[in-house]
Amino acid sequence: MHLGVLAPAARAYQAAGLCVLPARMPEKRPAVGTWKDYQSRLPTAAEVEAWFANSHPACCLICGAVSGNLELIDFDCAGEAFTAWSTLVNAEVPGLLDRLVVETSPSGGWHVVYRCTEPVCGNLKLAQRREDLDSPAEVMRFGKSYKPRKDRDGRWHIVLTMIETRGEGGLFLCAPSTGYQLMQGEFTALPVLTAAERDVLLRCAWAINAILPEPVDPQPGVVVDGERPGDDFNRRADFGALLQHHGWSLAHDGANQHWCRPGKMNSTSATLKDGVLYVFSSNAAPFEPSRAYSPFAAYALLEHHGDFQAAATELRRSGYGAAPQPVGDVDLSGLLPAATAPLLTFDLQTFAETPEREIAWLWPGVMPRGMLSLIGGKQGLGKSFLICDLAARVSAGQSMPDGTIHPPGKVLLLAREDDASCVLLPRLRAAKADLSRVCWSVFANTATGSPIDLAAHVHLLVEATTARAFDLIVVDTFAAFAPAGTDANAAQDVRLLLDALTRLARQTGAAVVVVAHLRKTGQGDGDPMDAIAGSAQMTAGVRVATMLDKGMQDGERWFRVVKSNLGKIDENGWTWRFHWPDPFTDGASDVPRIVWAVAGEDYASLDANRQAGTPTVDPSAIQEALAEVLAKGPRSLRAACDLVVATVRKANPRLRKGDVELAIDGLIEDRDGGVEAWEGPRGMRMVGLPGSQVESPEDKALRLAHENPDLSVRELMALAGCRTTTASEALRMAKSATGKANA
User: Fold this and answer.
1) pLDDT, tens digit, for every residue of 389-402?
2) Sheet strands (E) in 290-410
3) Contact 541, 372 (CB under 8 A)
4) What is the pTM assigned to this prediction?
5) Do the beta carbons of residue 581 and residue 593 sit within 8 Å?
6) Virtual CA dihedral for 525, 528, 531, 532, nearest 10 degrees?
7) pLDDT, tens digit, for every residue of 568-602?
8) Kind and range of the H or E element at 241?
C-alpha cells in the first residue's frame, strides 16, 4: 500500500475516535509489538503519525468500547452467505442494510461494520456449516487448511464458519489496506445502531446457521431401569417451560425459536431448535456464549448451580427414569408428564455385589487417578517450577522422580498466578515438555474476562477433560480459583470446592492436583498437615497430600508425602535442585530445570524433630548472632537470616540455612526471644529488636492528627513525611472522632 493513501486514512480514523494501528498482512495482527494497551485506550495523534511515517501494507481497527462500541460482521468462505443474509435483513427492516459500512476482503469475503449504542460482546460464531469427507487428510478451503474430525458415528468432517463477529477484544484489517475495498459508506462516518437493530443483523445470521455444536450434557452414571434420569428428561421435558420459569421470554416462534434472556425485551439471546438451546449472549448467566445445552444441562445449571449429580438425583426422585414422586418444595409438574413406573428411593447394594477395583496411579503413592491430591508449600520455594516439571514428565513420557515410566499423557494447567507466555512456557520448555500435550487456562469467561465459579461450572472442566482426555489437571492455586466471597477458613466453603474437584476427578479419571500455600506462621512447629492455609478440610478432603519444604543444604528442596488414605507413606521422599543449563552443551537459557534425587534417611529424622519441636541447632548461638545483626537496625527476615548463617557457619560449617530459618521463627514466636516481627513495605516481613519498629508515615500522620486535629494538611505532611491524600484522610478521621466525642 502506498504510504500516501494509508497514512491520511489512519489519521482520519484516529480523529473519528477509532483505535487504528499499523498491521501485518499475513498474520492479520498489529505491527506495534504489544497492543493490549490499545484495547483500552486510543492511540494519540503523535503515535499514529510516527507509526504511519513508515511504510506499512495494512492498517487495522480494534473493536469494542475503545472504538465507540465498534463491531464487525465477517462473511467468510468467499462471502457465500452474504446474499442470503442481506435478503433476510432487507425483508425484516428495509433500509437498515443501506446505512451500514460494507467492504470486501482479499479472500472474496465481506465486512459489515457499525457502532452500537450499547457495549458489544466478544467475538461470536453466528453461522456455520458442515462438510463431510472421505478421509482424515487435511483439505484446503478458501485459502485455509482444515484437519477433519470424527463425529460420534465415525464420519470424517470439517466445520466451516460462514459468518462471525469481531467485538470486544477483537480486531480486523480494513481499507485502504492492500486488497480491501470499501463498497458502501466510510469508516469516518459509521452508523450507530440501537440494540434492537444490531439484534436484527445477528438474528438473520443465526437463521442461516446449519450446524450446532454438541450440547453440554455431562451426566453422572446414574441408571434407573436402563435409562439415566437426564436422558429421560431430555426426551420428555418442556424446555420452553423451564426457560420461562427462570425469566426467559420467547422472542420469535417457529422451528428455530429465538429466546430473550431475563432483563431484556424482544432481542435474541439464544435459539432453541430440535431440543437444543444455543446461547449467543455473554450476559445470560449461568449459560456461556457460543455453547449448546440439552434440557438436562440447562436444568442442572438453572436449578442446581451446575451440580449434575444433584440434578440427576432430584430428577430421579421426581419421576424421570421412574415414577414421579413429590419432594419438598420442588414442583416439576409443569415439566413432567404422568408416569407410573415404581420409584426407587436409594441405590442400595451389598458389598458382595460391589465390584472391586484397584487404585490407578499417575505417580504411584503420590498422584492417584480419579482422585484429588494436594501439594503444599511456602511461597517462593518453587511450587510453580515443580508443577511445570511434573507436567513435562507426564506430557513427554519422561520417568517420574521415583523412576516410574508411563506413556505420554495430556496435562491441563489452571494457573492464575503465573503468566502463561513469559513464565510457564519457558519453564515447560526448559523441562523438555511436549508442549502440544500441555494446555493452560485461567478458567475465565472469555467474553467478559470474569472468573468462573469453580464449583458451579465444574461441568465445563468435565466437558473439556472428556474431549481432550487429560491425564493430569493442576489447580494452581486453590485460593486463586476460589469464587469471590469464599472463606478459606470456613469448612463448608472449602468443602464445596473440593467436592466439585472430586467430581471432576471421578467423572473423568484424571489425576487432579490442588496447589495450596502454607499459613503465615510457617510449618516448623508441629504436624505439617496443620501448616496448610485455611480450613482443616483442605487436607481432610484430599486422598494424598504432599509438602514442598527447604532441604538440608542451600538451594535444596524436599518433597515428600505427608498424608495418604491409599497406602503406606514414603517418609523420606525426594529432593531436587535447580540446574542451570550449560550454554555450550544445553544451549543458552535463562530458565533452570529441576534435577531430582532420593532423600536420605536423615530427612525422616529431620521431619520428626520438626514435628516434635526438637531444635536442630543451638538456639542460643542463633539468638546471639541475630541480636548482633539487628543491633544496627531492623532488617528484612531474609537478609537477617543470610547474615546469621554467615556468622554462625564460622563455628559450624555444616549448618543448614533451613534450620536457621526455623530457629529464627521460634525466637519470633517466643515473646521472650528478644525479637519482634512486623509487615514492612510491599508485604516484606521485617524483624528487629524490641522497640525498633519504625513508625510508618501513615501511622505517624494518624497519631499527630489525633493529637492536634487543627493542623493543616500541609503542616501534617511536613511533620509526618506523608502524602497529601494520607494527611487529608488522617485529619478527616481525627476530626470525625473529635466530633463524636464532643457529641
Assistant:
1) 999 999 999 999 98
2) 291-293, 361-363, 367-368, 372-377
3) yes
4) 0.44
5) yes
6) 180
7) 777 788 888 888 776 555 555 678 888 888 887 66
8) helix 239-245
